[in-house]
Structures
1.
Amino acid sequence: DEEEVDPVDTGVDDAQAVMVALAAPDVEILGITCCHGNTPLENVLKNTLRVLKVCNRLDIPVYRGCSVPLLARKQHAGDYHGKDGLGDVPDPDAPGLELLQKRKAPQAIVKMVKENPGEVTLVATAPLTNLAVAIQLDPTLPKKLKALYIMGGNTDSRGNTTVCGEFNFVTDPEAAYIVLDRFTCPTYIATWEFSCRNSLPRSFCDQWLAQNTEKAAFMKKIARLSMTKAQSADYQKEITAGKGFNACDTYAMAAAVNDTLLTESEEIAVTVELEGTYTRGMMVLDYMELLKKKHKAFVMKSVDLEKFKQMLMDCLNRNYEK
Ligand code: BDR
Ligand code: CA
């Protein structure tokens, strides 16, 4: 059995990622730690609870994390995810924030990993601020982790937020730098280009969302804005360079909960550019091994897309009992 802690900035694709984890057999979700990102932290907290409510899993502990990046100026992605971060379709009966745990996210990560040494996988689908703070609290964290999965960064200079920067890394470059430098556990990265290469065709999305379940109806509602945006000519031309819907965070989560999904990855040392007028926040791949880093990451190259689609289908129609 796997045990998981998920740092999210819920977010439409974060919601999908959480639902994929909930539907995975033999995976126990220890907690969800929230971080600023797609939308301000208060929305992230609400959105996360909304997703858990739809899945009937409000028993999963949710933690309040960092509301701002370490050094960078905060930014959000309201154009794509909606001002509320979840497609701007509010739920008047959304669960209240009194359900949140008292402990803060970085402390919670440290505690959960300490109590389950060698068993916890962290899946990070947001800016990496909570993780960077957690490792300052406990520098031995990586030794006790089973693995780390990240959605973020890029393998060439194609950005989705700045000219060369992917949202999660560019939103908190210092945090991304610290995490890539110091998390020496097995680390798997689903980059922006990887997500573009594996984007989901519209025909699949229609079939996926047409399922007759409450979870499918919820997903259809919250994903409408971002899916429409992803289909627009401008977005296709300027941003995604893919032909469909980029399920970004969901690839990282799906690979974490199903170790047969990833078919190819490249083991390489990576870091993050912290300066540069156009390149701040961009992931740097050290092909020539000039940085002499001992720790290498697994940069995802390909997945079994049919298996991935099946996991998405299942996550909207499986029961989420404990
Ligand atoms: C990442 O940024 C966010 O908008 C998504 O949720 C994903 O984590 C993609 O660059
Ligand atoms: Ca995200």
2.
Amino acid sequence: ATPLSIMVGTGRGARAGILFRSAEALEAAHELDTIVLDKTGTITAGRPALTDIRATAPFSEDDLLRLVAAAEADSEHPLATAVVATARARGLTDTVATAFDSVTGKGVRATVDDHRVLVGTHRLLDDAGIDAGPLEPVAAELAAEGRTPVLVAVDGRPAGVLAVADTVKDDSAAAIAAMHGLGLDVVMITGDNERTAAAIARDVGIDRVLAEVLPERKADEIHRLQSDGRRVGMVGDGINDAPALARADIGLAIGTGTDVAIEAADITLIAGSLSGVVTAIRLSRATMRNIR
Ligand code: ADP
Ligand code: MG
């Protein structure tokens, strides 16, 4: 594109809260054919709240919440924050973990009142040789509602399931419809489980989902799409997302996200909503049309 059309495109972007890192970023965005969206904090608000507590006998709801809050007290995961907030509101944060270990993309292991407590995904329990089978029907029911089931085991036995839910941002569904209108394929990527991811994808009109992707594998999934000949735009907000943003043909960071994501991105969407993706691609297409 000519320097003038780049200047015009960059200026229009800035007024719409879209910051292009370079002229190349503004030019290359028009070639994208696939948009990969992180779920938490990108499609959803990223502020999950605790919605359900299903304790297995002999544990009561309060027992379970007290143990889990103690185990999660030192975790920085948004899901941990949600659990601890509810426990605090109910006066159940009087117990402290004596050992704590966070397992990336899976959950936490802790020792609470001399009990071994595991909190997280089906895989976390599997890895410890614990049969999560008895918790499966409840977990499946919660996940079908688009909530994230958090499985709990105490001393090697299933002890219950909590659920945490995040709300979809107001304009996510409309923005995804607009991406489809531009002829783009839209894919959701998440560390969350298949069922929860599928329920949320259905709500926002996404038909392709990559779920249960461990943080360090997100970039590999982008590479796989590129190997199929696709030009991939990746949209994310978290520390986890930085390698995938860097790997994509164009990385788009949600402006309300972490600095690490913004540093790795080619385009920053200041407003923090998905409509910015649509505007950025329209601007790029308009800029490239002007030179032909
Ligand atoms: P995402 O940011 O896409 O939700 P993560 O890789 O951070 O994915 O986590 C994947 C899944 O691992 C979460 O959906 C959750 O089920 C589980 N998990 C991660 N951290 C914790 C934690 N501190 N407590 C409980 N579960 C967790
Ligand atoms: Mg995330």
